Amino acid sequence: MAEPDRQAHAILERDSRISKADKIVALLPDLDLASCRRILEIGCGSGVISSRLAEVAPNAEVHAVDVKDNRIEFAGYHFSIVEGTHLPFPDHHFDLVISNHVIEHVGNHEAQLEHLREIARVLLPAGVGYLAVPNKWRLVEPHYRLPLLSWLPQSIADAWVRRTRRGQYYDCVPLSARSAERLFDEGHLLHQDITIPALRATLDIEHPHSPVTPWVRRFVPDGLLKLTMPVIPTLIYRLKRQPA
Q: Which residues, at least 6 apart from 223, have a Cβ–Cβ distance to it below 8 Å?
């Protein structure tokens, strides 16, 4: 049976997307953006991240794709509508590929695996991928704002979404760290877990005025943050193609 259409869940707020783009750049310190020739954002939503990347990598040709056009920012990049997970680009084409909170929207295990295989296909041998996905075991599901929603069997999650009048069914498939890393192996991608530095970067760049930020920066070591990994809100990985 075919899956029903999934919602876009695009965040259409400019300032938060600019901060998100700056965080992504900060988490790839070994990538020389000035020398990048081509950058791809999959699932660009508002288009703000792609536009920001075009600003910070002025020599790069920036491409963005999505299954729907929800853009509020149009400058600096090339946009294409796609169907499903297929990417309309040749093999070994991009220095940087970004999948920011996309994989949970593409469908079931096979669709998620195809999403990763397409990333591996279009990456240059020395290219870098950035992937963020909500943690299945986070305490509050981020798209519907319901506690423990992603913990539940599909039928119960669907019923809860309907009962709270937030949709007809639960259309996201977040991943646990274990399931994400198994998928990377199947998709022929080497992965580096950068969740903890990403958490620090999120506080510093996206929430600089929060009272929590200086407290975490000064008093909370990485070892203590790692204890929160089972329920940490977002898992973030740096990806590379597996050698042939």
A: none
> Taking residues 7-25, what's their average pLDDT?
90
Q: Which residues, at least 6 apart from 47, have a Cβ–Cβ distance to it below 8 Å?
A: 64, 71, 72, 73, 74, 77, 79
Specify burial of residue 149 (Cβ count, 10 A radius: 0-12, 13-18, 19+).
buried
pTM, rounded to two decimals:
0.94
The number of residues making up the chain comes to: 244
Which residue in 147, 98, 96, 162 sits closest to 124, CA to CA? 96
pLDDT digits (tens, 9 = 90+) for 208-243: 999 999 999 999 999 999 999 999 999 999 999 998
Cβ-based neighbours of 203, under 8 Å, separated by 6 or more: 210, 212, 213, 216, 217
What does the domain layout of the chain look like in residue ranges?
Answer: 14-138+174-196+226-237, 143-172
Hey, what CATH class is 14-138+174-196+226-237 in?
Answer: alpha beta
The tokens for 180 are 């994400």
DSSP for 11-61, written as a single string: ---HHHHHHHHHHHHHT-TTS-GGG--EEEEES-TTSHHHHHHHHHSTTSE
In the predicted model, is pLDDT for residue 4 greater than 80? no
Q: Are 188 and 196 in contact (CB under 8 A)?
A: no
